[in-house]
Amino acid sequence: MEGDAENRKDQILERLNKRNKDRQNYLDVKSELRSKETVQNEGVDYFYQTFSQKTIDIEQRLKDVQCGDGQPTDLARNFADITVEIQDLQRYLTASTMFLPDFKIKSCQNILNTLTAVSDETRQRLLPKKKFGFSGKKTAAKPKVAPNKDIVDAKLSKVSEKLGSNFTWTIANRTNEHIVLDSAKVNGQDITISNLTHCLVELQGHPGSVQVSRASKCTLLCGPIARSFFAENLEDCTLSIACQQLRLHSSRSIRIYMHVTCRAIIEDCKSIEIGEYNYDYSELEADYLASGLNKAQNNYTDVADFNWLSPDVPSPNWSLLKDYPDPNWNALRRDFIANNHNSELKQDVKDISII
């Protein structure tokens, strides 16, 4: 009897253990699927913001061309550049279709079709083809038909409507500024940054994600990012970033002090120097906890270069910072503010002397 009771007890324990394992496996799979879904959504958001910005740039070029009085050779060159930009945007859309929903692909393709049509129509009006004939008679020159600006503007406005005019960058079009966003504006938010020159940007808090497009001679200091950091078209910049995922595209001469729990990825980049994350401020520990980042796991030495496929030879496009002192961010901040203040004083004196 005691043996039977013991066997039943063992069987019950075994079933409980199996049920617990099955439950844990289910939770692990569910967590992994949720993580993949989050990454995919961020990829879609990043694509659409990039696509929108490039579309706006092409729109502006088309408006500049139709409003200007350039020579035929200049116009031809401008239209050639616009055609290349539209083709590049088409390739970007094609390469991104694997993770985009069908409705978004269709919407973006319609935008590209409209841009192409507007470009062709404007080109035909501003650069009409010469007619060839054998007649020796001289005919009066026909007046040049001015482009119908209203029609072009109407078509371009439809493009803007399709893009959604409600998108705004968190920080955009700034030069020589010290920009600080505190935790009230940063925590859990998706921060987007565009078109900065010689700026010091501090994001004090724990953002949900950070995306940067086009920056030159800038320093970005950021608290722990809960998910991802994406950046493109950076030049001569310094970054201090902690995140789950880091991707850097089309950038050069970049120094990154990073904490990344996944493998960092670079593409079309050169002269990238990498060190360990060392930004520090009073709420850093609390922000680490709130972001959910594993502070003990840092893969900053493991970088995948999509332009370097040789597994046996290190990529020449990035290197680890060695024998280089850690930056003093307080001193950098102080010097930046002082230099900007001196520049403003010099500008004031210059303005006074002109008056």
Automatic annotation (TrEMBL):
Signal peptide feature range: none
InterPro entries: C-CAP_CF_C-like, CAP/MinC_C, CARP_motif, TBCC, TBCC_N, TBCC_N_sf, Tubulin-bd_cofactor_C_dom
Keywords: Acetylation, Chaperone, Cytoplasm
Location relative to the cell: Cytoplasm
GO molecular function: tubulin binding
Domain C-CAP/cofactor C-like: 157-308
Cellular component terms (Gene Ontology): cytoplasm
Alphabetical list of Pfam families matching this protein: TBCC, TBCC_N
GO biological process terms on file: post-chaperonin tubulin folding pathway; tubulin complex assembly
PANTHER family, sorted: TUBULIN FOLDING COFACTOR C (PTHR15139), TUBULIN-SPECIFIC CHAPERONE C (PTHR15139:SF0)
Family, per entry: Belongs to the TBCC family.
Complex formation: Supercomplex made of cofactors A to E. Cofactors A and D function by capturing and stabilizing tubulin in a quasi-native conformation. Cofactor E binds to the cofactor D-tubulin complex; interaction with cofactor C then causes the release of tubulin polypeptides that are committed to the native state.
Name assigned to this protein: GD11992
